[in-house]
User: What shape does this take?
Amino acid sequence: MAYMTALRVERAEQIAAGIHLFELRDPDGRELPEFNAGSHIAIVVPTGDVRKYSLCNDPCERDRYVIAVKKEAAGRGGSISLVDAVKAGDLVMSGTPENSFALDERAASFLFIAGGIGITPIMAMIRHLKSTGCGRFKLYYCTRNAHATAFLDELSAPAYRGQVTIHHDNGDPAQALDLWPLLERPAGAHLYCCGPRAMMEAVRDMTGHWSRSAVHFESFVDAAQTRTVEDHAFSVRLARTGEVVEVPANTSILEALRFSGHTVPSSCESGTCGTCKTRLVRGAADHRDLVLSEAERSEYIMVCVSRARSTEAELVIDR
Assistant: This one.
């Protein structure tokens, strides 16, 4: 994300309750850097903060980027700033596309599970599959009601008949889609899931019998939003040097390591991509990721979101 460029907002409009679409183009009409299905871009919102948004248009379109943004009243203000202050004709600063949720096109088939605004990266995937003539997918899209369903008209069109199921729960957990019949038999499919964390955790728990390489999650909940008021400070010891790094209550291990001068690879920083996977040598970790299996949790930790269970014993990691 080091390189940023100004893009013109061609369209800015509401497409569902609380969800707004933005179409971005080069001000001089040039082609934009290419992207593949599942990619996201970083946008500098009017508050000056940087937020990541999935690209939801077909990757074959080189003339525009399309994002859909949910206005989060309980968020940190980035989405509110973008939705309320950015209009058609404005310029926004954008990073080049990055992808930590890439579509594995070698898969025999695809199963997509989306919740709410989690439909955005999956829209790029199914549009890509449609445009390339691949019909080997099923989408299950869960929303509160029709008014809160982005891309409802497109996904309800005859072109997607038999491939797309839209489920409304009316905000009642008792009406939530039963996911187990979809996940009971893997049948060689690759699963892509994006939505509320509770949904993704449920999918993770139901896919323990799947191949780990066939299950993919995406989330733009950052490390700060995985913390709780009960979080405490703790220390991390680096096994190779013996150095001790203090991790404050409001800081992730990843952030603390970088503050201490260490270079640590990362991508999603929400515990979903696996880039920051680090060997756990000793200590009891409070795992908050969606990547590690139960068997792996005794040996590894995702330093972007996970913490120590207690202040009384440090974590020792292989660095």
The two ends are 25 Å apart (CA to CA). The longest strand covers residues 4-16.
